[in-house]
Amino acid sequence: MEKGKSGNGKRILCGVVVGVANSLFGGGGGMIAVPLLQKTGMKEKVAHATAILLILPVCITSLIVYFSRGIYDFSVLIPTSIGVSFGGAIGAKLLGKLPVKTVGIAFAILQAFAGAFLLFSS
Hints:
Layout: H1 4-25, H2 29-39, H3 44-68, H4 77-97, H5 100-120
């Protein structure tokens, strides 16, 4: 991974792009973070795990802005949080066990499906 001011500048720019995408689209910052982190020299599995870590402050900041504007629906918080927590634990265990190539292929397929869904949904 790059060290020094040049590397930090790239990481800050990466963070800005991820933060804008996550806040603007209500998610998806992690999908952008992974390839951007890899461009800074991070290995794929480390980039996946780090992307999850980076999304926490982005989500908290976005929540504060949305909450202050009254744009939220807390009725989904508990059931969705339960599902996300279990899914996150399963995904984290799988990331440690799956080959890098398999993770990369699964990630690419997920991005393609997400893009197609957004493109063709009303």
